[in-house]
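PROTEIN DESIGN WORKSHEET
SECTION A - STRUCTURE
LENGTH: 132
TOKENS:
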């Protein structure tokens, strides 16, 4: 992979993503960072998210709600999507490390990674339903 020159905007995007536990869209990142970086363009955010994804420094989550979301935590984990509010949460569990091995037992090829989405109702939405 090529070595990239330092970019203040790219670093700000990476720092911002790594400081969040939610999974923002590029638009959300752009609007948040624009407050402290008024010259930041949406194109710069999209280009740098593409580079950071390609470099493995962030994860791009697709297929959630028709819009790509980004995760600053690149450790092995899955995601939970609330079918009521659309919230995306991280899910960490021991079986995650074994999933590639189990899948490889049923596939004539090489499996190197996976991504799992769990769907249901988040704790806040369950609480709201009970209160109604």
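SECTION B - SEQUENCE
RESIDUE ASSIGNMENT:
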């Amino acid at each position: 992979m090529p070595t990239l020159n330092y970019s203040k905007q790219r670093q700000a995007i990476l720092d911002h993503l790594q400081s969040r536990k939610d999974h923002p869209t590029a638009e959300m990142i752009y609007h948040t960072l624009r407050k402290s970086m008024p010259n930041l363009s949406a194109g710069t955010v999209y280009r740098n998210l593409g580079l950071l994804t390609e470099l493995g420094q962030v994860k791009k989550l697709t297929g959630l709600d028709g819009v790509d979301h980004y995760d600053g935590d690149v450790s092995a984990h899955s995601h939970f999507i609330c079918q009521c509010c659309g919230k995306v949460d991280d899910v960490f569990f021991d079986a995650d490390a074994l999933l590639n091995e189990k899948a490889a037992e049923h596939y004539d090829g090489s499996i190197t990674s996976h991504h799992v989405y769990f769907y249901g109702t988040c704790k806040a939405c369950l609480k709201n339903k009970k209160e109604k």
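SECTION C - NOTES
Residues 42-54 form the longest helix (13 residues).
The chain is about 35% helix and 15% strand.
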